[in-house]
Inverse folding.
């Protein structure tokens, strides 16, 4: 009889627990719906982005625009009356593009066609009068090595491996190509090339050259050669022209240069946790951008979405249990100084960071989140997917988060990235075509809403999601 | 011992069956990957759409452009050497817009602001000199009824209920608003209104008026009043102006008219089934569009995606078991004559249609499919989701397909619709902003690839998916 009593007690206990779970899940769902409603009707994100993009513009590290963006976002965050808003000093590289680049294809002596070109970030200038030389087209470093010094010395190397159109995730296509841009000059210089031209990292055929960071690796200053990207249409033209006449020459001229580091800032706002003030949750994006567009998708969107997460908590009068910080990182594009500095200071102060979320993949319709954590913990996060199903943001993937939060990585933190639809991203990325006019307000807001929902859930259950089952 | 033998035989049988299932699933997955690869690298869909949109343009039923589109798609389908390509005659209404509409707000006598306006499809003209009258703003038919004849007679009714921004599926927001456009004139005429102005069905604030079909219901010709849409920005301006001065007047003039029906065509191409030639699978979109854009999203996309399904089967040398038809329907927008005629003829000829798929929701990234069938059959179709997961088109939903295939509905057919991302659709729908420049090539191709994969699976397993478990 006693056993039977115990059995029934347990049964009822289980039932009550389940009923309680159910009630909690329901109240979480109600909160998440409120967050989405808020973002879709009353968010400041689109207006903030309009200001960053149209009133300020491209925000390359060390530029006046980057400093304006620091001041603007600090001012806006202060208006929202968070517990703390401050600037975190960080020294950043200052690379400047100089006068506009210029390039043409010379298919036969005196017969030229101008093509759109942009110096790669970190590249040196050409000589003042530019470079004109024959062109060697390659698709890989292996091909380059096979050609060797004899065929390459004194020429311009043209990297023309296109992004793979059959990959559904365009970031994977990008990953399969970007070594041409990042290390192309370093590799080609070894064989005596005079300069390097890279096909833009873009799946579409168009007329926008796409810049981006590059590195000379271990090359001395004397060994360095100038590097630039040309548009995909120009790459097709150059390749076709070379097929007709292998003696075709390319001319290009650029006057970019690297100046001494300058002072800049991460911008940080914090709501102090009511129950666990010493546990920190970070949500962020990067404030700097390239200079040739206005950086709306990369990464103005991530900046304003992160600000909007805290704005929505304030608007709904939600008091987080844990301390939540918006961090607007400086210098993601060409140095990662902001991300490194934030992580260093967090470590130095012994701040316990439990979760960090970055949005740095454009303002397109959110499809899910990625998680950089253990397999076991990822499986636990997958249990949150049902909360996101009504909003079609339920595609959770294993691995990857964001460049700026990467340095926070440790065993005790879960890193995450917002994963929007990727199809259009590289039409804009690092080009003149990354502008506010290409932002869809609802898509931007849906991303911020999804981020708010995830941050809310982590705040409720902790970075290890205790109690989620 | 015998029993044991039987047990092992069964066990091995099950294992072999499972292994076979597994092998079949794998070969299906390989075929689907080939289809996606084909569409992302070698499809004609984007070029076809460029021609339909830029060389032909808006294809309103009965227009020269609609006939050009019939001739063009017939020609292109014939080039692909399907078993049969033919035109199916259908009489269609011919409504013409006439000279451009014109409208202004008169906030006080002589103080006017021009606003963008477009007559609704099917509306009558205003008197030659236009209509100028005071305006009554309402949000619903209930509000209209409450105001009654005394307040409405002699005035222009302005329907200004916006699309609900908190719904994630924007088609649901559209559904909650479109009665203002479709029945607004019929309702307002009963109370003696002189004309009707409708806020455009658009979630965004912009300057494009969005047209679309409307009906006078049972009203006699004498009772009918002119109806037009104004842009969302204009609706906001008119509403704000009315708040300041309720005596504000609106002027509008339009010269549209309904002409006698004319002959047009559905365009049909067929690959004959190798095993079950008498079972028909339909894939289609509608060839007509509104006149003020070029109908790229609505529904040039669906047309070229459907054509591309058969093109991909040809290119991969896939011989379908069942007969597959591409049907390009005429007159979806203002009459549905093509869809009705196709279904009538299918019925008359006793053709056994087992599955029909329509793409008519724009060329955006595909997210999944909807299915109009029984709950049990829908659950069976959900078992196909894993095939679509690698392509992120795995969101299958219950209910709804496409307007043109609706008339085929019966107990023995499964109807389905491609479901792309909906966030941007109503920025373009029925407006001057539905143009080829707003089409992303990859998104268009991914939709066609997903459609091909679904048609392939239905061809393999039949409309009832026998053998799928």
């Amino acid at each position: 009889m006693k056993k039977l009593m115990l059995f029934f007690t347990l049964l009822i206990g289980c039932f009550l627990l389940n009923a309680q779970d159910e009630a909690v899940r329901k109240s979480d769902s109600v909160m998440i719906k409120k967050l989405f409603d808020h973002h879709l009707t009353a968010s400041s994100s689109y207006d903030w982005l309009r200001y960053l993009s149209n009133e300020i513009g491209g925000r390359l590290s060390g530029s006046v625009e980057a400093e304006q963006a620091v001041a603007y976002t600090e001012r806006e965050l202060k208006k929202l009356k968070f517990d703390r808003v401050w600037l975190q000093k960080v020294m950043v590289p200052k690379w400047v593009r100089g006068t506009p680049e210029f390039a043409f294809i010379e298919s036969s002596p005196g017969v030229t066609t101008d093509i759109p070109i942009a110096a790669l970030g970190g590249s040196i200038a050409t000589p003042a009068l530019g470079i004109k030389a024959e062109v060697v087209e390659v698709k890989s470093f292996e091909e380059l090595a096979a050609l060797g010094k004899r065929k390459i010395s004194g020429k311009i190397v043209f990297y023309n491996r296109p992004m793979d159109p059959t990959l559904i995730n365009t970031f994977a296509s990008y990953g399969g190509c970007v070594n041409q841009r990042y290390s192309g000059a370093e590799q080609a210089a070894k064989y005596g090339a005079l300069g390097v031209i890279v096909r833009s990292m873009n799946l579409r055929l168009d007329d926008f050259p796409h810049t981006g960071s590059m590195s000379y690796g271990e090359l001395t200053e004397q060994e360095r050669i100038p590097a630039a990207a040309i548009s995909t249409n120009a790459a097709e033209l150059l390749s076709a022209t070379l097929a007709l006449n292998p003696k075709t020459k390319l001319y290009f001229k650029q006057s970019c240069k690297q100046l001494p580091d300058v002072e800049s800032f991460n911008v940080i706002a914090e709501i102090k946790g009511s129950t666990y003030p010493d546990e920190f949750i970070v949500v962020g994006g990067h404030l700097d951008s390239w200079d040739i567009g206005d950086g709306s998708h990369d990464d103005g969107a991530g900046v304003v979405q992160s600000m909007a997460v805290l704005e929505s908590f304030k608007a709904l009068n939600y008091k987080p249990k844990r301390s939540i910080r918006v961090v607007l990182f400086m210098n993601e594009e060409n140095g990662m100084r902001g991300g490194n500095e934030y992580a260093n200071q967090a470590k130095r102060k012994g701040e316990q960071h439990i979760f960090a979320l970055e949005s740095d993949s454009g303002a397109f319709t959110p499809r899910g989140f990625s998680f950089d954590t253990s397999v076991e913990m990822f499986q636990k996060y997958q249990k949150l997917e049902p909360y996101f199903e009504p909003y079609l943001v339920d595609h959770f993937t294993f691995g990857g988060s964001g460049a700026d939060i990467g340095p926070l990585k440790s065993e005790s933190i879960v890193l995450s990235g917002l994963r929007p639809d990727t199809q259009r991203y590289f039409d804009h990325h690092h080009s003149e075509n990354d502008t506010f006019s290409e932002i869809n307000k609802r898509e931007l807001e849906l991303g911020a809403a999804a981020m708010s929902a995830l941050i809310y859930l982590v705040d409720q259950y902790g970075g290890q999601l205790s109690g989620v089952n």
The longest helix of chain A spans residues 2-42. The interface with chain B takes residues 36-37, 40-41, 165-166, 168, 170, 203-204, 365, 367, 390-392, 395, 421, 423-424, 427, 440-443, 446 of chain A (CB under 8 Å).
